[in-house]
Specification:
Blueprint lengths: L5 E7 L2 E8 L22 E7 L19
Antiparallel strand pairs: 1-2, 1-3
Amino acid sequence: STSSGVDFILQANGAELARLRAMPGDPWRELTADLSPWAGKPLVLSLVTDSAGPFSSDWVRWAEPCLQRN
């Protein structure tokens, strides 16, 4: 692949909480973030993908997003 990678970004109310760079051939990885500062408050979560450079040959997928209470 000629991809230069992609960034997976988790945002809460527009603020970036976590970012993970993935390159072609990388295994699936977990991206986590602490949402406790928003407990009991309105929250908009965004799952964002962005090309890490030129966007040729970029293919991405989010898999099994979930919220867990600790």
